[in-house]
Specification:
Chain B: It comes from Caenorhabditis brenneri (Nematode worm). The complex is a heterodimer of chains A (about 200) and B (about 300). Chain A is an alpha/beta fold and about 200 residues long. Chain A has 10 helices and 4 strands. A 4-stranded mixed β-sheet of chain A has the order 1-3-2-4. Chain B starts with 11 loop residues before the first helix and ends with a strand. Chain B contains 9 helices and 14 strands. The chains are: A alpha/beta (about 200), B alpha/beta (about 300).
């Protein structure tokens, strides 16, 4: 899909500019375009620096191609920008590690993150990549909260983590896929051991 | 972002943020998920980010409450005929041939080691003296417990603990021992509850000489008549911006000096002094009775003189 034909997604209908505000255009890696207010962009340190360095005028943002964000897909980026628009103008928390980081998830964020785990993990990645401190905090807290009251077996299921046995089997499978001869050698070695041979060679 | 996103595919720095927010008990359970996760938790310099740690010692049990945000985990270590009974919510496990205090201190060591950020509140309640036959035994248990506490290192192997507020319910001696373990650079408030101090000496002078005492900004002391700060010049308390304290005897001259220092201190907020004896001819404002909370949260009426500034 060409950039010209890409659908333009307004993140927040109510946020359509009535005054002369600058709305930047961004494009996800699957060619979805978003318009995001200047104030909302400030929540992302990465994007804020980028737009500052570009020094676009209001004509530039309309006439020049949308700014490409190559590592993030449209579905995730939509959530990111919805979050930024909702929290625009809010102070960005500074974490110097001196006080315990106590994160509480506001109602809007809880609703926004009512998504499948795969998308939630992508959101964490995106928040980290775009350096959106508070979005990273709340999305990590959401994942952390899933562990509440769970047994190790339940945690494996919730987080799709392998047990030691599964991990070992996966490693063996990966090794075999790389070197199909490895299993044959191992079997041959076991066979010789059974036959009482002292040395493989 | 080529891989299917999951906790297993998360970069370590993001995994660390998630794990740190999971709370103490969840972190312990995550250790048991697999060896890779156990190694990650042990090798990463995690910050448990605890807001409050509360320790309550009873004769044959000790409870540890770890609070992170709104959530708190309560673990009780109880003496058991076979070893130690560990109680976490409705779950009860018996660990054989292990002393309950050894197990408790092993856990506390891990907590203190992995608490990088400042603990908002550290609350330590020692055994209260009961019947006269038991006094010696309780004193011995409290002394032993405080000695073991003093062996606890702070984060990154530091000698002292980073605590913003410390609350001790115990004798003067025990308070002094615990207070001396706190890093004065982080300490803001001292709370000291002492309703029993019959066997211990009243070493108020030694407490107020501690650097921790001098660096704290707020003080709250609730003590019985006999256990209050005796024969101390109240001007020694003038550096506290906010305080509520009982002192056995105050003089008019000391109170005037104190008020003068408060006027000169732009950070002064409030001060409440409870005293038993007043030495001076000038009348001062007082309220005859007040309701105070004892260490069990019950309201008790105390009748004594009460001087409030401002």
């Amino acid at each position: 899909m060409s950039v010209e034909n890409a659908p333009v997604v307004d993140v927040d209908e109510a946020a359509i500019p009535v005054e002369k505000k600058m709305y930047y255009r961004f494009e996800s890696n699957d060619k979805k375009e978003f318009r995001v207010s200047e104030l909302a962009i400030q929540q992302s340190e990465t994007l804020n620096r980028l737009v500052e360095a570009m020094g676009y005028t209001s004509e530039d943002v309309e006439n020049k191609p949308a700014i490409a964000i190559e590592n993030i897909d449209g579905k995730t980026l939509k959530l990111v920008f919805q979050w930024c628009e909702h929290h625009k103008g809010e102070a960005i928390p500074v974490d110097d590690g001196s006080v315990p980081k106590i994160v509480e998830i506001p109602e809007f964020d809880a609703k926004l993150m009512d998504i499948d785990n795969g998308l939630l993990f992508k959101l964490i990645w995106a928040a980290d990549y775009l350096n959106i401190v508070q979005l990273l905090n709340v999305s990590c807290k959401k994942v952390a909260n899933m562990a509440q009251g769970k047994t190790p077996a339940q945690l494996r299921r919730v987080y799709l983590l392998p047990s030691d046995e599964e991990d070992e089997a996966a490693k063996r499978a990966a090794q075999e896929a790389q070197d199909p001869r490895a299993r044959e050698v191992e079997e041959e070695f076991e066979e010789r051991k059974r036959q009482g041979g002292n040395s493989f060679f | 972002m080529g891989e299917r996103p999951s906790l297993a595919t998360m970069p370590n720095e993001l995994l660390k943020i998630i794990v740190e927010q999971a709370g103490y008990m969840s972190i312990q359970r995550l250790r048991l998920v697999n060896h890779a996760f156990q190694e990650f938790i042990e090798d990463s310099k995690l910050d448990y980010s605890l807001k409050e740690i509360s320790i309550q010692l009873l004769f044959n049990q000790v409870s540890l409450t770890l609070k992170q945000g709104k959530d708190s985990d309560v673990i009780v270590y109880k003496q058991h005929e076979q070893g130690t009974e560990i109680q976490i919510g409705s779950l009860r496990v018996v660990k054989k041939e292990v002393n309950f205090l050894d197990l408790f201190f092993c856990v506390l060591k891990d907590v203190f080691k992995n608490q990088i950020s400042t603990i908002g509140k550290l609350n330590i309640e020692l055994i209260r003296e009961w019947g006269s036959d038991w006094k010696e035994r309780f004193l011995h248990a409290n002394n032993y417990f405080v000695k073991r506490l003093q062996e606890m290192e702070g984060p990154e192997g530091q000698d002292q603990w980073r605590v913003s507020m410390i609350r001790v319910a115990g004798s003067h001696d025990h308070t002094k021992g615990i207070l001396s373990m706190v890093d004065p650079n982080y300490l803001n408030r001292i709370e000291f509850v002492c309703n029993w101090n019959r066997l211990n000496r009243n070493n108020s002078e030694e407490i107020i000489d501690l650097v921790q005492w001098k660096s704290a900004k707020e003080l709250y002391c609730l003590m019985g008549y006999c256990q209050g700060f005796r024969r101390l010049d109240v001007t020694k308390f003038s550096h506290f911006e906010k305080m509520e304290v009982n002192i056995t005897t105050v003089t008019a001259n000391e109170l005037h000096q104190l008020i003068k220092s408060y006027i000169e201190n732009p950070n002064f907020k409030s001060s409440v002094i409870l005293y038993k004896n007043y030495q001076g001819d000038e009348p001062i404002d007082y309220i005859r009775a007040r309701m105070a909370q004892n260490r069990y949260g019950q309201l008790e009426e105390e009748v004594e003189n009460y001087y409030r500034i401002p």
